[in-house]
Amino acid sequence: MKIRVQFWSYFRDLAGCAETSATLGDGATIATLLKDIYARFPKLAPAEKSTLIAVGVDYQPRDHVLKDGDEVSLFPPVSGG
Question: How many other C-beta atoms are found inside a 10 Å radius of the C-beta of residue 45?
Fold first, then answer.
């Protein structure tokens, strides 16, 4: 299945692009996708534990099972004042 991945905020700079795609096997989870993304974009790996992940418009846990055509957004941690 093909998944579209978008990088937001300074993740775009770390990845060197705004988006990419990944081809994964059926039943793959967000954790599977992240393993692929961190192998291809190692500068993102240090933020692994604090990365926010949305599928479509809803935040999802790492055990969420992906479907063909899903759009996954990766966000850095958010802070404000």
Answer: 14
